[in-house]
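User: Here's a chain of 256 residues. Predict its fold as tokens.
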Amino acid sequence: MVDVDQWCASRRLQLNADKTEAIWIVSRTSLNKMKSQNCSLVMGAKTVTPVDIVLNLGVYLDSELFMKQHVAKVTSIYFFRLRQVRHHVGKDITICLVLAVIMSRLDYCNSVLAGLPPSTLQPLQRVQHAAARFICDVPYHEHITTHLRELHWLPVRSKIEYMLCLTMCSVHSGRCPSYLSDMLQPAVTPSRPLRLRSADSSSYVKPRLQTKFGERAFSHSGPAAWNQLPEHTKQLSSLSVFKRELKTILFSRSLA
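Assistant: Prediction complete.
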């Protein structure tokens, strides 16, 4: 904590201890061991006691990164905002309102949800279904799949994959920060001089992991999503064309 304080001071920034929260992100076994210890952090004359959930850039992070609290909190907000949008305007304006107020927030930072089980993402999928029912004026007992196709909306899980591939496109084209590109390794590197079938591909290496939890990291989930795309799609130079073709591919997969 002293290093953070000094780093901020060197840049003419000052930490506010009263508004500072701390969280330990560890496994459940380590978390149980830490409960019997004093894991508080000292910031000047203040002591910061670790909490179970923190809010960072609109994302609720818990100690084990289960993200259930985040999904529950944002789901309740989205349903509340959906009730605020009324049928006082036409369908076109209603779609614009739902896209701006609800769907845009549903897509915000959704890549942190990569690798989560379907049961955790299901509440967010219900929000999308409710938004589609609201726009198309569909009763609750009627199937919503046809209307999702008409709106050309990707399911929540496909939206997460879309964002991962879009970030990987920025990495592949060199338009991303170095902290992202440094964690990824192309399938063909100077250290691999042999001419393999992947020598002319745009794939990236998926690191070997010892736990299933590690697959949620971008260093694994990003290449996993990117490598499944057709080679000609990964080679597209136009970002707008890539987005359009990527959505078409994911939309086709979601209907399979």
